[in-house]
Design goal:
337 residues; alpha/beta; Rossmann fold; 2 domains; 15 helices; 5 strands
Length: 337
């Protein structure tokens, strides 16, 4: 997939600057990981062009097949597996032997391997790159293991840390990096890009709104078969307590949708325009205290969404929680058991 134009412009601007450690930060869905990889590709390309990597040399091919000797990705093991990047042999053997599950944090063992990698000579002569994503998944031990190398790396090693939660990083990590806040893409560019990915214009417009203006998230919704009609009906379905509206959803996805609904209701209650839903699709919002309480409950649920609960029971609880909040509104529809 080609780099979207708003990311390509940011890549070019960053490549024109000097620095051994970049911190790419901003809200989710703005392309932190693709931009980090675009920088890595350009730095490791054996025939770089004005627009970054050539895409044809042996170095570019090695990245394409996830086997470049001078590139290390520091990601949670679950993220590595989802993206088909190979794990270190020892880690893969432990998981294959059922000794442990894939980690959801960046393990300190992987960080120490990356620090050792930074001290080695470049295999292909174009320097070395370490990409850390999502950087907020470094625990305190992993982050501290990186500090010295991040401050004084070997001369040919570059770091790219990409995050959706820069505030969660240690201040000492942030202070050692040049920060770049990702830009929000213009709506016309986002819609044009989605069309280039095969998303019909009417669908692209609806899903871009559902994604809060984030093109990557809108594309993911399109690939998952999201229905604009179902999204428009979602707020009042939650008001009525209709569990079938989230049937088959993962708890984390349901929580994210409910957080968007709560966000828009808070905006509507304060007289602002909603972001994720059309104003006509929203029920009358409850008072601010009820919405604030619901927001806090959803944030708590998000912290446990990946735990091994029985998903249907958790979805029922989430819908009941939504209905209990929304039925307080003046236009609430009585619930029929």
């Amino acid at each position: 997939m080609s780099l979207p134009p708003w990311l390509a412009a940011q890549r070019d601007a960053l490549l024109a600057q000097r620095g051994h450690a970049w911190l790419l930060h901003g809200p989710s869905g703005l392309g932190q990981f693709p931009l980090a990889m675009a920088l890595a590709r350009a730095w490791l390309c054996e025939a770089p062009q004005a627009g970054g990597a050539c895409g044809r040399c042996a170095g570019c091919h090695a990245i394409d097949v996830h086997a470049h000797a001078d590139l290390v990705l520091l990601m949670p093991e679950v993220e590595m597996l989802e993206r088909d990047w190979p794990l270190p042999e020892k880690a893969q053997a432990e998981i294959d032997d059922k000794k442990r599950k894939p980690s959801r944090e960046i393990r300190v063992d992987a960080m120490r391997d990356a620090v050792e990698f930074a001290q080695r000579t470049s295999a292909r002569g174009r320097g070395k790159v370490v990409v850390v994503y999502p950087a907020e998944q470094m625990n305190a031990i992993s982050a501290n293991a990186l500090l010295k190398t991040l401050e004084e790396p070997a001369g040919d090693t570059r770091f790219v840390l990409a995050t959706e939660a820069a505030h969660a990083l240690l201040p000492t990590i942030r202070s050692r990096c040049m920060a770049h806040a990702l830009h929000w893409p213009p709506e016309d560019q986002a819609l044009q890009w989605l069309a280039g990915q095969g998303v019909a214009p009417a669908l692209a417009s609806a899903l871009l709104r559902a994604a809060g203006g984030r093109p990557d998230d809108a594309l993911a919704l399109a690939q998952a078969g999201a229905s604009p009609a179902a999204w428009a009906a979602f707020p009042k379905a939650m008001q009525r307590g209709e569990v079938r509206a989230v049937e088959g959803w993962r708890p984390g996805d349901a929580i994210a949708a409910l957080q968007k609904l709560c966000h828009d209701l808070l905006l509507a209650r304060t007289g602002a325009a909603p972001r994720y839903f059309d104003a006509a699709d929203l029920p009358q919002p409850p008072d601010l205290a009820a919405l604030a309480r619901w927001s806090k409950e959803l944030a708590q649920a998000a912290r446990t969404a990946e735990h091994p609960f029985i998903a249907p029971l958790m979805l029922e609880a989430l819908v009941a929680q939504a209905r209990n909040t929304l039925h307080l509104a003046p236009d609430a529809v009585p619930h029929t058991p």
